[in-house]
């Protein structure tokens, strides 16, 4: 099941700090940094280069759609599905809750407060229900 345009627009808005409708290398790097990913500026520029359809060094909504759809390769999806299963809440199968995220991150040696976990989830919680579905998890791992 693909994402609808509104969902892509929300993802774009999340990364697009200056509101120009495009994602710059710095914006991408800042947001990925907030999620705890460390990206070097040159890596970000390479990534943007690869998907930048009009050569302006920025990602447009169309570019973003392409990235999201290209990353739908089976292998990647399978890995994501496995990762998602690991974070799944045993009480609420099919969803990652702040508590299950906290437990999993703890196992990975990252202690986060429940508030930090709620925060992390809220960034990618597209429908506002306070938990991450597989689809939202995919967007997060994008």
UniProtKB/TrEMBL annotation:
Pfam families: EF-hand_1 (PF00036), EF-hand_7 (PF13499). InterPro entries: Centrin_CML-like (IPR050145), EF-hand-dom_pair (IPR011992), EF_Hand_1_Ca_BS (IPR018247), EF_hand_dom (IPR002048). GO terms for molecular function: calcium ion binding. Residues 3-38, 39-74, 112-142 form the EF-hand domain. It comes from the Eukaryota. The keyword Acyltransferase does not apply. The keyword Repeat applies. PANTHER family: CALCIUM BINDING PROTEIN (PTHR23050). This is EF-hand domain-containing protein. The lineage of its organism: Eukaryota, Viridiplantae, Streptophyta, Embryophyta, Tracheophyta.
